[in-house]
Structure formats: structure tokens, C-alpha cells
Amino acid sequence: MKYKNFIVVEGIDGAGKSTICDYIINLLNKLHIFNIIKIHEPGSTPIAEKLRKIIKFSKEEFFSYKTELLLIYAARLQLLDNIIRPNINKNWILSDRYDLSTYAYQIGGRSINKRNIIFLQKFIKNDIKPNITIYLDVNPLIAIQRIQSKIKDRIEKESITFFSKVRNFYIKMVKKDKTIKFIDANKDLKYVKSAVKNIILKLINI
Is 164 strand, coil or helix? Predict the structure, then answer.
């Protein structure tokens, strides 16, 4: 089921998701919408945050892609049961990443069979879908330059080839799903914010 008050911001690392999430909150506040819960994936609950640290910062020499996938879904289950389901009918929920990231990174980037992900989706009974997903598209070369100065986590250290595969999968999904709104995040922040604003205003019928 899709919910009008559920917004997701997507894109590869370095696309500017955190900045745009903060902008959306400020925009909604200006429109007198204050009951907003901001979340991020993986994470946002005590258990999910611990899993996030493992996923992003584990120094174990061999980290199986299957292990990564299972940890992501364990974290999502905690998020669904403890935050999304109890609040979806009474608050706005803004998420930095959600299902689309899993498809793009795990199928596109890791080449995991789609059937495994569909099975896990059903296993955790993930039937809550955003009405709008804002996809910030950026060239991986530009994205990597943007995060060059920060301490990179395990995933951010992946190759250009990996992020290119992830980006290509995102674009493939955009073409299939009209609820995913494409924004050229290679352009300046003023342009991106303007495009996001138009999407949000249309969503709430202003």
C-alpha cells in the first residue's frame, strides 16, 4: 500500500540525500507541517543502528554479500515494526533510502538474484510503500569527489564500476515506476532544491 505522507530520497553515496532531506523538512515546516519523522536506512532504531555500524564499518576480512543483504533486511524489519508501522497513519515519514536502495545496490551493484530480495520482502511483510521517491541522479565521478574529504565507510570505498552499476539500475527503475521522480543532481543545489520543491508542492496539492 502506498502512503501520501511517506517520502523517500534516493541516490548513490554523494548524491546529496542528507542535504535534500533537511531541505524537505524545512519546506514542510514552512507549510505548517510539523509532525515529521526523519529516518535513514539502514538504521533509526537502536538495533538497526548497531546493524548499520556492522554493515558500514566492519573490518572483517571477508564480508559476504549475502550477510550484508540479511543485515539490511534485519535492520529494515526493526524500522518497519518500531517506527514506520506505528506512525504511518498519523505522521509524515521522510526516509533517507528505502527499498529502492536495496534493489539498486544489491541487484545492480552486488548482482544478487532478485528472487532472494523478493523472498525477504515477503518474509518481513514489507507492504508499506512511499507515494513519492525522489531520486537524485549524479555521475559517480562527481559523487566520489563530493565525499572525498570525509572518512569513507566500507560501501563508500567501492569502485567507480560498482557505483556506475548501481546508478544504471536506479535509472532503469525510474523508467519503470512513475512514482520515482528523477532529478539531475549533477546541477547546482539551487536547481535541485527548486525541483524538489515542485515535487513536494504537487504532492500536497499546493
Answer: helix
The alpha carbons of the chain give a radius of gyration, in whole angstroms, of: 16
**Residue range 13-34, pLDDT digits in tens:** 999 999 999 999 999 999 999 9
Task: Yes or no: say if 141 and 188 are a contact pair by the CB < 8 Å rule.
Answer: no
Number of domains in the chain: 1
The set of cell numbers assigned to 72 is 539490511
**DSSP state, residue 61:** S
pTM of the model: 0.95
Reported confidence tier of residue 206, pLDDT bands at 50, 70, 90: low
CATH number for the domain that contains residue 83: 3.40.50.300
The answer, yes or no, to whether the previous bond of 42 is cis (omega within 30 of 0) is yes
Q: Whole-angstrom Cα distance, residue 6 to residue 80? A: 13
